Amino acid sequence: MVIGRDYGVSKQHLSVRSFPASEAQLTPVNEKLAASIGWFGWFLGGFVSLALISFGVYKWKNRTDDGETLTPKKIELTQKNGQLSAAIGGVNIDLSDPVFKEFFKVIYNMKKQEKTEILMSEFDNMIFTEEHSQPHKSKVKKKIFKLVNSKFDKPFITIDVYPLDKRYKMIVMNVDAVTIKTQKGRTATNGVGSIT
68-79: string of b/e by CB count within 10 Å (b at 16+)? Predict the structure, then answer.
C-alpha cells in the first residue's frame, strides 16, 4: 500500500493505492549503511573544499603582477671611488652602520675570490672589533642573516659545521646571487682584489 498525493488529479487530497506483492516490493533500508554513506559524503565534501582552499592560497601566495614570471633576486654591489654600495633586488641598502658595511665588504671579497664558505671566527674578525662581546656578535649576526635571508626565496646565508673539525662553524653564502659592478658599470664575475 502506498499513500501520497496524486498531483495529476488533486493537490489537496491524499491518494491511496495498493499493489499486489508481485508488482511492487519495498526493501527495508539499512540505517547503519545509510548513516555511513551520509558521513562519507560529508567527509568527501570537506576534503574537496579544503583542497580547493589550499590550492587558492598557494596560487595567491605565488601570484605575480600582470602575469610576469618571478625572477631570482640578486645582491648588487657597486664599487665607486673606493666606496661600496649595495642593493638587493634593486632596493638600495643603507650601509651607514659600520658592521653592516663590513658585512657587505665580506660578501664583495668572497665574490671576487669565488669563495662560498668562510669560518665563523674569521668572519667575526672581519666585521667586528675586539670591543664587541660574544653575545653582541651573536645577536648582530642573527639580525643581519635574518634580514638578508628574508629578501630571498631560499636562504642566501646558511651556517654549517666545518668538515675538518666539528668544533668549528662556517658560514656558507650563495655568491651566485651576487653581482659586482665597477665604477664604469661593468659587471665582474670573478677576479682578484678586495675592498679594505
Answer: eeeeebbbbbbb
Closest CA to 83 of 68, 101, 99: 101
Same structural domain, 174 and 88: yes
CATH of the domain at 95: 1.10.10
In the prediction, which pLDDT does 107 show?
92
Q: Who's near 48: CB < 8 A, 6+ residues apart?
A: none
pLDDT digits (tens, 9 = 90+) for 48-59: 888 888 887 777
Query: Which residues span the domain enclosing 28?
Result: 2-66
60 and 107 fall within a common domain: no
- Show the cell assigned to 112: 671576487
CB 137 within 8 A of CB 128: yes
Distance from C-alpha of 46 to C-alpha of 50, rounded to nearest angstrom: 6
